[in-house]
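Final report, closing paragraph on structural work. Over the funding period we assembled a curated collection of sequence-structure pairs, and we close with a single example.
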Amino acid sequence: MKEQKFIFALRMVLLFAAGLLAGGPLVLAETPSVPIAATESAGQPRETDYQLQLPLNEAETLALTHQPILDAQAAKVRGMREQAVADAQLPDPTLMTGVRDLPVNGADAFSLDRDNFTMVTAGVRQKFPRSAKRRLRGERGEIEADVDEVELAAMRREVRREAALAWLDVYNAEQALQPAQALVDEYDAQLRALEIALISNRASQADLLAARVERDLAQDRVRGLARDVERARARLARWLGADAARRPLPSQLSDLPQPPALEQVLEAVRTHPHLNSYVERVRLAEAEVALARQDYKPDWAVSLDFGYRGRFSDYVGLQFEMDLPFFTGQRQNRSLEARLAGAQEMRGRQADVLRQQEADVQSAYAMWQAARDRLREFDARILPQARNRVEAAQLAFESRGAFADLLLARRARLDIELLQLEQRVDIARAQVQLRYFTE
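Its predicted structure, as stored:
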């Protein structure tokens, strides 16, 4: 025991001395204890995150915040801006070196200092494209960056729209499961009642078999809807990621803003980023035309070289070069015509995109109005009548009525409930489509 205390005291003294030599007393800090659960969960998504509901607006925000395709397009824009600066600069000079007029036969063969024409040369050559051409090249690069930047704005709208539509597909499939499963539960209760009624001769074997068939068909429909849910969540995961796409959706569909008047939406189409990208493409084609016109004007270059001749006098050379665009018929003319045709193509595509977007707006607006009218009809008349029909058929069956009428009424009620849900989701889909053109 004394030996252990002595060893411990000796270690403390040595540590204290080491601290003094280092410039101060050595302080032994106590390491804070970290709960094991905290260390294991650090950086990992919590299980409660997957249990939080995912409303539509949050799904859109997630799609825009964590979207690789948007990050890639933004990087492309930055790259094009940098390249535009480089395109407007002079080309790098060229270094030239070699041996000139070296004899290869006779007494002076391969000698560098016997023949007074032989020299070792070193020089620099610089090309000077016309300043207007360099300026146009830089402007072309800037316009290409503008095209990509406008496309980035259009892609943001597209990502938001596609994420919202994928969310609505999941909502539609999950909400359709509820009445389908409720019908299966009704059939289960009806089967139990029929089995009891069959014993007391208040139901027939045919009624029992018909109920079983209807129950199995309803269960198969539930399985099909469950597969639709999985497929819809897979499409949602493309925009949100797998983890966020697993979160449950709220049972109520959040209200989307009402679209403005049709004329206002059509007016907004003319400033839509997708159409603006073709406006920028027309500018780019016009810049290509301007560059093609510059090919008729010559560029020039200058070379400066030094010739070392050993025993003889050294030389210095200065040389100027200039392009000679003499044969323009098969080169410059055709290149210019190609660029003019490209500009005409872009103008035609711009007009086509405008026509297509106007047609999409009118189609979405008609869908929105029709779905609203149908939903009002389903809410006010069709669905209440379908439910009353089921109740009447149930009472009739209990009074020795036809069991087939009850089965048919229940099946029709489910179809009507699903149609009502479809109209509600179609309204939201049309609102998402119209919002894509306005904001």
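The longest helix spans residues 131-199. The radius of gyration is 40 Å. We thank the funder for supporting this effort.
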